[in-house]
Amino acid sequence: MQTDNETLLLKGNEAIAHAAIRYGFDGFFGYPITPQSEILETLSLLRPWETTGMVVLQSESEVASINMIYAGGSSGKCVLTSSSSIGISLMQEVIPYMAICEIPGLIVSVQRGGPGLGTIQPSQSDYYQAVYGGGNGDYHVLVLAPSSVQESCDMVGLAKELMMKWRTPVMILSDGSIGQMMEKCVLPPYTPRRTDEEIRRECPWATNGLGLKGRKPNVSTSLELDQNLMEQRNHALQAKYMRIKQEEVRAEHYMTEDAELVIVAFGSAARVAMGTVDEMREHGHRIGLLRPITLWPFPDQDILTLASRVKQMVVVELNEGQMLRDVEWAARFRCPISFIGHCGGVTITPDEITHKVGALLSQG
Question: What gap in Å lies between CA 263 and CA 348, rounded to an integer?
Fold first, then answer.
């Protein structure tokens, strides 16, 4: 087994598969759906059960996959699943179970155009699904948005760290463009999977009871018939979310220091917008880009600080303006905010953004 870094030309989906093995995940449970099927396919080709002992299983459905993640995470194991859009919709029942029981797990969502079965083309129309969730109750999942193949790889390691630190589900919100594009990717060294003794020491909450010597069994359940106790559990969960908001906000500032107009975009849309920034900078326009890396927690303070000094903002998304609402809320009406978007799997071009931004600048 190679222990050093390795550089390969990979798709974003393939990078996630390689990263899951190298970062020491114990298991993957998933079901094929375009445009994320290469994650399962790559894991099958790499056969990590022969080298690291990692379990790779194609489940019978997305519902089965997320329940396996729930069970694996409950026992203190580092496990992940992946799907796309409608597949993530099928997982929504179990994600709140994991949230209230404080069960770690990684969910990779490679977005496609919708609603419904839609198209297999890339989209960002699952922002609401990821950030606000389709499950019941007052819960959140940590949401990371990569914009490159390298980040797709690196965020698997970050997600593992965050999900175990905070005992929470974490979602990597990719899309069909990032999942299918090929770029050079530096893979991390192999991290050994944790031993049962390490799990016993690090996860005293784990439910694998008699499987760990010298410890009584734990019970993990989302059911609590006493409403007062359930309120206490909710309050504890919200207190944890407040700490996450204080500690885990991530965003990239690109040429925002002197910008008069700032574009806000995430994921593949941010890659396109960055090209616009570079082009317009060459023509003397003071344009910048703010790229939210954590969609939850959202970089509210970054938005507010910029909105308080720039002349205007432009939100670019591959949807009908889902993140736009959060940007507007965070900006507190400090500056005008415009929107550029496509939906249903139609992508956006640098020329479209340049034309729109140029028109805004000409209006003063």
Answer: 14
Listed in order, the ranges of the chain carrying CATH 3.40.50.970 are 6-201
* SS3 label, residue 10: strand
The ranges of the chain annotated as CATH 3.40.50.920 are 252-362
Q: What six digits make up the tokens of 194?
A: 């944790």
Q: What is the CATH number of domain 6-201?
A: 3.40.50.970
Burial code (b: 16+ CB inside 10 Å, e: under 16) for 303-320 equals bebbbeebebbbbbbbbe
Beta partners for residue 110, in sequence order: 174
Residue 218 pLDDT > 90: no
Cα dihedral 308, 314, 319, 320 in deg (nearest 10): 80
Which pLDDT tens digit goes with each residue over 291-308?
Answer: 999 999 999 999 999 999
- Tokens 């927690």, located at residue: 297
Q: What is the DSSP string of 190-235?
A: P-PPPPHHHHHHH-TT-S-GGGSTT-PPP---S----HHHHHHHHH
CA–CA distances in Å: residue 272 to residues 128, 148, 206, 228, 266: 22, 12, 43, 50, 10
Question: What are the pLDDT digits (tens) for 237-291?
Answer: 999 999 999 999 999 999 999 999 999 999 999 999 999 999 999 999 999 999 9
The structure's pTM equals 0.96
CATH number of 252-362: 3.40.50.920
122, 268 in Cβ contact below 8 A? yes
Alpha helices in 47-125 (DSSP H): 62-74, 86-90, 94-101
Contact 156, 16 (CB under 8 A): yes
